[in-house]
């Protein structure tokens, strides 16, 4: 049995879509217990719309809500009774195994580090994002937790990301690439040049060298390692470009009668294609290296993404990802002590 | 009259498409004289395919070719008779006003700085790229010339980029944005935090603050300033994502008979849409702050892009962009001396 605290108040479509997604998850798996965190009355009103296994859903009161625009550090400190703080405290106390939220990224990042806390040995818990590619999905990390990283942080990202992709997503021997501006080892900025040889030395990951940004949508690596500023730029540009292109194509299709007729005919095929390029089917973005699991979904998440994110927690727990991360970091530490 | 040296040997479709594009440019404007640099025999064979005004085209011999994979510094030093070195030497000697090449980016960057040389006062000549947006086109710089930039470099990029967008592309009071991972001033890495207040102080540019990568394809700023590592990642991801999405959509359209019929109907509309998102119609990417103009086109450039790139040199010269850059930097220097 795994207990997942779900932030019922976070995201553009809270609480309706969040509650709907949580109910869908418990219906799919008897092994999940969901704690819906939020203003009880509001949450209950949504919950009553569905039949659901009562023993798998619990309501937890949290009177406050952290808004997207609020300065995160302040919000976490001041709003003790917000759904994010209450949910993370449940994880900290061991009353929940995981926390899923579509709320403020900043607050989730701060809360993850301050409330849930880092696993021993983890220098900087990165924020990973699953991004769709031509071939499937890649994990991009760090994509927003800590800017101005050091080489040793990037090496930990590579290790933790590999464990995640292998055991949660099921990719055998995931290829690890470091984001660079050329394929050759001597290319790059100071950070990349320092990190490259360290990654080459890692025997426990499958490092394949530099990955140019152009190769990311082609699925050029399974674990894409970079510093958080770069990662955040990649993540947001990726989403922005996709949205603009699809929007322009749709608009273009409405430009003449001929193309309108064509649009009706291609609709099912186009829908399938765009679905393959839709990150939400893989669940949310995990923050790795914390004492519990914290998963951030898109602010725009609907029930489907919430459901997948909750189910993802089950795999995370079953596969003992945190135990594997600890082992990996311990092994590294021992190797350094007894070279 | 403006004299443009064109690298007839650089790019995936050299010399055929390069020569074709150069001929198209001189046919469009009597004010352009083109010098085609390359292996004379090969170039002449292409040139003879077209009728063209003989007084506007000149052949210049260059026996060597710098390949894309060659280490740039070495290539520029060793291959003295390559089309890139010969062309840049013509600019240096004042025998050409501009140099256009679809060849090795690395060699063009090194050659631009080492052979053509910087304008007095320019710290680091950036590599600008015109990128298509929902609204038109933006200039992204630096997108590959110098990694690990300092704040003062970014301020110069903003100044030079503004002059370029206003006078070459014709955008009145171009909006300048600095790439950041949040809209607020306190966000960002160390470089952005240091640069932000400096840009705010500039009275000669229209600084609009941070731009998140998501807003780039929406045309959120006309001049997009960033450090070269980030810029290169943006440029390549932008091109890669567009290519993959369009490829997936085209493949999707071939998946059923119904969608195939639809595809035929939407083809003209789709073509128009994708054309609007095609950077090649604006010409190449200028390297700013050099004593002459150096323009890099895509390696995959065809005649149309080459033609536009050559015509772009005319505007650059007519608008006296380099003189304006010098004035702008001089004014800044004087202001610092007599505050």
What does this protein structure show overall?
- The structure is a homodimer.
- Chain A is of the alpha/beta class.
- Chain A contains eleven helices and eleven strands.
- Chain A has helices at about 15-30, 40-45, 70-80, 85-90, 105-115, 150-170, 190-200, 230-255, 255-275, 305-320, 320-335, and strands at about 1-5, 30-40, 55-60, 100, 130, 135-140, 175-180, 205-210, 225, 285, 295.
- In chain A, strands 3-2-1-4-11-10 form a six-stranded mixed sheet, with helices on both faces. Chain A has a five-stranded mixed sheet with strand order 5-6-9-7-8, with helices on both faces.
- In chain A, helix 7 (about 190-200) links the parallel strand 7 (about 175-180) and strand 8.
- In chain A, helix 1 packs across helix 10 (about 305-320), helix 3 (about 70-80) crosses helix 5 and helix 4 runs parallel beside helix 5.
- The longest helix of chain A is centred in the last third of the chain and has 26 residues, at about 230-255.
- The first copy, chain A, is globular, with a radius of gyration of 21 Å.
- The two termini of chain A are about 40 Å apart.
- The mean pLDDT of chain A is about 90.
- At the A-B interface, helix 8 and helix 9 of A face helix 8 and helix 9 of B.
